[in-house]
């Protein structure tokens, strides 16, 4: 191992998260990747809850993979994104932001893209996600770590913070993957809430493919002989947003054995 590989920037985070940082490849990830990936795993029809669905656009992607999908969009009664919703061809419900209005085990997949940084009470909401997921069901999406204030956002999460919240809710983190880098996400805000079209287009490309700092980390990984897991951990430390995939464990919500160390993580490692 080269000396750079021994002291790469993601080393401490990897030490905390272990196998939750994937080692298969280190490309930038999107919440949408989980739609194809998860739905391919089972014939369906899938029961999907899009938590914080905004304008409801995800229903098209779900239907393209599973035409029989039972998709429900859930969101607050009002928000900047809810106000943009025009479609009437899918089921939408509103709620108070915490108590998900469905019986337990109602869904196979709770999808949650760029929502948790806007949620006033994430912990009780995640416990509700666990409650409405069928055993073995999955919770997947993305959230922000280094995103400046936007659209009533109230938090940013570190990858370790997210893994800790998931575990506390009885959801077993399967993987966290880096999204767009933090500098790109911060730079976009230099243009305020309505960037010029060229800037938004450039940023959208970075978001969907590979942003500049992630390209630098790829180079650093090649030169320093870092494996994909070390590259992912380094990108996770510096990312603006990251994706998550978690599973509803077999334990009933509320009774999960949360044995906490300082971050509530180590108790479940290796499970
Ligand atoms: C940045 S938008 C993302 C919308 C959509 N998921 C997407 O990817 O286009 C954030 C969304 O979170 C919703 N939101 C805020 N607090 C929420 C809560 N407690 N529960 C569910 N959704 C919430 C907002 O109404 C808004 O639709």
Structure description:
By secondary structure, the chain is α/β, with parallel strands linked by helices. The protein has ten helices and seven strands. The chain has helices at 3-6, 11-17, 33-39, 58-65, 122-132, 159-168, 182-188, 197-208, 212-224, 228-238, and strands spanning 47-51, 70-75, 91-94, 107-113, 133-144, 171-178, 241-248. 43% of the residues are buried. Bound molecules: S-adenosylmethionine.
Can you tell me the residue ranges where pLDDT is under 50 for at least 5 consecutive residues? 253-271
Give the name of the CATH architecture.
Answer: 3-Layer(aba) Sandwich
Average the pLDDT over all residues and give the rounded result.
91
CATH class: Alpha Beta
The percent range for strand residues is: 15-25%
Total of domains? 1
Radius of gyration, in Å, reads: 18 Å
Percent in helix: 25-40%
Q: Which cofactor or ligand species appear?
A: S-adenosylmethionine
Secondary structure: number of strands: 7
List the helices and strands and how they pair.
Elements: H1 3-6, H2 11-17, H3 33-39, E1 47-51, H4 58-65, E2 70-75, E3 91-94, E4 107-113, H5 122-132, E5 133-144, H6 159-168, E6 171-178, H7 182-188, H8 197-208, H9 212-224, H10 228-238, E7 241-248
Parallel strand pairs: 1-2, 1-4, 2-3, 4-5
Antiparallel strand pairs: 5-7, 6-7
Helix pairs in contact: 9-10
Bound molecules: S-adenosylmethionine.
């Amino acid at each position: 191992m080269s000396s750079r590989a021994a002291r790469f920037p993601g080393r401490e985070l990897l030490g905390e998260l272990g196998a939750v940082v994937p080692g298969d490849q280190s490309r930038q990830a999107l919440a949408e990747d989980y739609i194809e990936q998860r739905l391919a795993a089972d014939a369906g029809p899938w029961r999907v809850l899009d938590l914080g669905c905004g304008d409801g656009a995800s229903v098209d992607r779900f239907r393209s993979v599973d035409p029989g999908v039972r998709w429900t969009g859930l969101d607050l009664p009002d928000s900047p994104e809810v106000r943009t919703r025009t479609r009437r061809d899918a089921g939408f419900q509103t709620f108070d932001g915490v108590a998900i209005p469905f019986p337990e085990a109602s869904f196979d997949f709770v999808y949650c893209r760029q929502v948790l940084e806007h949620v006033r009470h994430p912990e009780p909401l995640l416990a509700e996600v666990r409650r409405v997921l069928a055993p073995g069901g999955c919770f997947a999406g993305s959230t922000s770590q280094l995103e400046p204030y936007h659209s009533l956002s109230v938090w940013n999460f570190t990858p370790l913070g997210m893994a800790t919240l998931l575990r506390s809710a009885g959801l077993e983190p399967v993987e966290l993957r880096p999204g767009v880098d933090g500098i790109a996400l911060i730079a976009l805000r230099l243009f305020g809430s309505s960037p010029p079209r060229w800037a938004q287009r450039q940023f959208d490309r970075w978001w969907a493919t590979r942003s500049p700092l992630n390209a630098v980390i790829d180079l650093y990984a090649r030169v320093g002989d870092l494996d994909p897991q070390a590259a992912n951990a380094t990108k996770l430390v510096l990312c603006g947003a990251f994706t998550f995939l978690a599973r509803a464990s077999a334990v009933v919500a509320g009774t999960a054995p949360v044995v906490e160390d300082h971050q509530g993580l180590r108790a479940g490692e290796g499970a």
